[in-house]
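[step 3/7] inverse_fold.run input=structure_tokens len=263
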């Protein structure tokens, strides 16, 4: 288990680092990312998360259930539904504000716009950290070198799409009037939940190993909720939404290649 924690720390540390690296763009650019580029980035993140949900989470969940003599689809469906419910509850309770949006989501709170902008991205990073942590926990349970490679492929894919995500929060914070340094710090910290939740699920998986199929599909459901509820709609706002569609396809293909090549 200590080995799983170590690898999960490295994997989620990499995804956090990529978020911070993207947030550092605030030191080099004055304005927000152009709308067309933003659509590509949002679509790309959607494609990565869809592919990761299927190949890195749902399929392993069903394989684990089958190996344990269970009906494969029951934990896959059950965990998936619980993951959706978890993110839906957070989405409706936690006050947050998406860039370019005017209305606050979640419960009413007298918080600063900058705080709610950070929370919007932080909320989406939770299932990503869980996914990476669980992938390494699964590899550790089987002492499988191929499993570690697949987990690292997932971490690389999530990390790549975290780079523009970091910029997507730090640049709007700069537009809200924060200094470049504070915008960078807040943008980077939006990704800190990934190592936190990644390590927490590794610890949970070690103590409740029979629930691994449920945990894997839980993370898949949470990620798919983010994709369908937020990322894809935002990638297709306005005219020329085909660039967002191409971004989805590109992200999906990249994650597929990483999973096959490294897994």
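[step 3/7] decode complete -> sequence:
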């Amino acid at each position: 288990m200590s080995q799983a924690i170590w690898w999960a720390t490295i994997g989620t540390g990499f995804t956090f680092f990529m978020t911070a690296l993207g947030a550092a763009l605030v030191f080099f650019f004055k304005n927000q990312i152009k709308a067309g580029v933003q659509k590509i980035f949002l679509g790309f993140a959607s494609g990565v998360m869809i592919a990761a949900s299927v190949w890195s989470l749902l399929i392993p969940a069903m394989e684990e259930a089958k190996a344990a003599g269970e009906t494969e689809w029951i934990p896959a469906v059950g965990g998936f539904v619980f993951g959706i419910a978890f993110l839906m509850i957070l989405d409706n309770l936690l006050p947050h504000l998406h860039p370019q949006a005017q209305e606050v989501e979640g419960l009413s709170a007298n918080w600063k716009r900058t705080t709610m902008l950070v929370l919007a991205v932080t909320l989406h990073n939770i299932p990503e950290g869980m996914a990476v942590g669980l992938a390494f926990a699964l590899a550790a349970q089987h002492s499988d070198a191929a499993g570690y490679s697949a987990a690292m492929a997932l971490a690389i894919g999530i990390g790549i799409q975290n780079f523009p995500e970091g910029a997507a929060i730090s640049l709007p914070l700069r537009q809200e009037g924060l200094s470049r340094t504070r915008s960078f710090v807040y943008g980077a910290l939006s990704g800190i939940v990934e190592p936190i939740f990644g390590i927490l699920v590794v610890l949970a998986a070690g103590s409740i190993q029979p629930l691994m199929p449920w945990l894997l599909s839980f993370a898949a459901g949470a990620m798919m909720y983010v994709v369908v509820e937020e990322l894809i709609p935002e990638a297709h706002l306005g005219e020329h939404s085909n660039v967002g569609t191409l971004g989805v396809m590109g992200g999906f293909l990249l994650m597929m290649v990483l999973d096959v090549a490294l897994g």
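[step 4/7] annotate
The longest helix spans residues 35-67.
The chain has a mean pLDDT of 87.
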